[in-house]
Amino acid sequence: MVTITIDKKTVQVPKGITILEAAKQNGIPIPTLCYLKDINEIGACRVCLVELEGKERLITACNNVVEEGMVIYTNSPKVRQARITNVRLILSQHDCNCPTCVRSGNCSLQKLANDLGIIRVPYEKQLFHSRWTKNFPLLRNYEKCIKCMRCIQICDKVQNMHVWDLANTGSRTTVDVTGNRILEESDCALCGQCITHCPVGALRERDDTPKVFRALADPDKITVVQIAPSVRAAWGEPFGLKREFATVKRLVTAMRRMGFDYIFDTNFTADLTIMEEGSEFLEKLKNKENEKFPLFTSCCPGWVRFMKSQYPDMVDQLSTAKSPQQMFGAVAKSYYAELLGVDPEKIFCVSVMPCLAKKHECTLPNMNDSGAGQDVDVVLTTREVDRMIRAEHIIPQELEEEEFDTPLGVGTGAAVIFGATGGVMEAALRSAYYLVTGENPQPDAFREVRGMNGWKEASFNLAGTELKVAVASGLGNTRKLMEALRKGEVSYHFVEIMACPGGCVGGGGQPVRDGEELAEIRSGILYGLDAANELRFSHENPSVLKCYEDYFEKPLSHRAHQLLHTDHHAWKMPDEK
Fold first, then answer.
1. Which residues fall within 8 angstroms of residue 128, CB to CB, at 6 or more apart?
2. Residue 335 carries which DSSP code?
3. What angle do helix axes 267-286 and 542-550 make, rounded to 10 degrees?
4. Residue 483, Cβ neighbours under 10 Å: how many?
5. 22 close to 12: Cβ distance less than 8 angstroms
């Protein structure tokens, strides 16, 4: 421990931590626009300046370590004036058209300028202009970039994709795509972590809400919407709702008020995915001498994009099961259209997802097996749905709970935990155990795969067969796992990968809480919902069983297989031949 004085308060703090962390531990806020602990501590924004007694020049708090006897002033007149000057300089190179910015009201730069009382910028406006693609799911507005370099660091250090880098020199320096490429021609996995870590509106998802509003207003369209498991753990955050109040049933009510005809739960097809993926895995085990392991889960389209661009030789080991989103679209425009007695062409299928990669997935040329156009018409992120709630002047605090529609609104606890890292693996093992033994395991028998560790391993005995499984979340951890597999350092039978750290709960389409990592808290919500659910096994979902009985067959007919499975080679990344 070392003794320092911060703003006339003498405190003891751990040796080796930064001034910023020391101040934070003692309830003294120091503003910053670029700082991310253990990721981006380079003082790029120059906002966290502090005055150190005995030093003429101000220093940055985010990358200077405490020393014994330091006397620090975090908001002296000298510090305050320098901070105002630096923020004004940032504003002079930033598009400040806040009312039309997707981050207005949730922008660190906007808040800091307001807190500092900045009402004018005395410097000449200099904006960096460059082309940016408006059709790709991930959009970049160069005029709003403040060069904090968070996107570079999160992409390099956490996701290990190296999509972003500094371009040009001197006053022309900006952030751009590496290799002088345009974004849609890069190997970006569309994890969206650069968006959720950007402090301003320089990065955002493509806004698809106008398409949905048009469909809701079209009397000839039957609007069907599915809500992903992890959305229920986060949708209420921008409204300041307590987590126990912001239930998925209140979100159902909000969507009914918007005018959706049928509101369903992606948990239904998450259970369906387990039935198909689990069966596929067990079939491989029966013939393990002639099969190549591991089998990789295929629920996460960001991971599938990563696999196709980085490890194309291993694509054959992906499960052929479609993601729950795409299974739902195919089922909605076939089985459910038949139940309604309507032309599938009339159904407009919307997904609410925590993800950007899902926007890409629904447009893939092989995701149209229902024969009524793309199986999923539009994907909305959690953020987009929250904006729609505001646009419709719906007050979430006043909503009562309403149930999902049936039969595609029934899901189990096993499906709920799909949104957390390890959840798909745990759900699959629960049902695999039953399919092999004819008996249910204890619901929490496979909890070893839970937790926020980026790469987890576990072994289980499945009716005499020793299973080795692994779970990874975040593409940096995924790359380490894949390289270890290639080198023969590890071997598994079954592997679950999620592109986003913590799984879908930490997805790139979730609400942005600057400086906060909420995946673990959101995961806890999902595990609580699983524990409270009367149904905790996918193979016990009555609606899924009836769907097999009425529409699909076991073994699957060619038509059913076409609806629920896919060929991952049917679409290509930009660099694939």
1. 93, 142, 143, 145, 172, 174
2. I
3. 70
4. 12
5. no
Residue 143 burial by Cβ neighbours in a 10 Å radius (0-12, 13-18, 19+): middle
Residue type for position 12 = Q
Tokens coding 233: 């753990």
pLDDT in tens, the chain (577 residues): 999 999 999 999 999 999 999 999 999 999 999 999 999 999 999 999 999 999 999 999 999 999 999 999 999 999 999 999 999 999 999 999 999 999 999 999 999 999 999 999 999 999 988 877 789 999 999 999 999 999 999 999 999 999 999 988 887 888 999 998 889 889 999 999 999 999 999 999 999 999 999 999 999 999 999 999 999 999 999 999 999 999 999 999 999 999 999 999 999 999 999 999 999 999 999 888 889 999 999 999 999 999 999 999 999 999 999 999 999 999 999 999 999 999 999 999 999 999 999 999 999 999 999 999 999 999 999 999 999 999 999 999 999 999 999 999 999 999 999 999 999 999 999 999 999 999 999 999 999 999 999 999 999 998 888 999 999 999 999 999 999 999 999 999 999 999 999 999 999 999 999 989 999 999 999 999 999 999 999 999 999 999 999 898 878 888 888 999 999 988 887 767 5
Q: Which amino acid is at 529?
A: L
> How many Å apart are CA 73 and CA 61, to the nearest integer?
11
In sequence order, what DSSP letters do the residues of 361-409 get, joined into one string?
A: HTT-TT--TTSSS-SS-EEEEHHHHHHHHHHTT--GGGPPP-PPPSSTT
Q: In angstroms, rounded to a whole number, what is the distance separating the alpha carbons of residues 330 and 328?
A: 5
Contact between 1 and 69 under an 8 Å Cβ cutoff? The reply is: no
> Residue 159: exposed, middle, or buried by beta-carbon count in 10 A (0-12, 13-18, 19+)?
buried
Residue 117 amino acid letter: G
Q: Return the axis-axis angle of helices 475-486 and 301-310, rounded to nearest 10°.
A: 50
SS3 50: strand
Report the SS3 class of residue 195: helix
Cα 324 to Cα 328: distance, rounded to the nearest angstrom: 6
DSSP state of 270: H
Structure tokens at 406: 């049936």
Angle at 396 between CA 390 and CA 402, to 5 degrees: 120
What's the token pair of residue 248?
């998925």
- DSSP for 436-487, written as a single string: HHSS---TTTTGGG-SS-SEEEEEEEETTEEEEEEEEESHHHHHHHHHHHHT
- Across 198-346, the runs of DSSP E, i.e. the strands, are 203-205, 222-227, 262-265, 295-296
Match 């004018």 to its residue by tokens: 120
Q: In sequence order, what are the beta bridge partners of 28? A: none
Alpha carbon distance 127, 146 (integer Å): 10
In terms of Cβ atoms closer than 10 Å to its own Cβ (0-12, 13-18, 19+), residue 487 is exposed
Residue 558 to residue 556: CA distance in whole angstroms: 6
CA–CA distances in Å: residue 268 to residues 182, 432, 437: 38, 18, 24
* Rounded-to-5 percentages of helix, strand, coil across the chain: 40, 15, 45
Exposed / middle / buried, residue 358 (Cβ in 10 Å: 0-12, 13-18, 19+): buried
Instruction: Using DSSP, state whether 561 is helix, strand or coil.
Output: helix
pTM of the model: 0.95
Which phi and psi angles does 271 have, rounded to 5°?
-65, -40
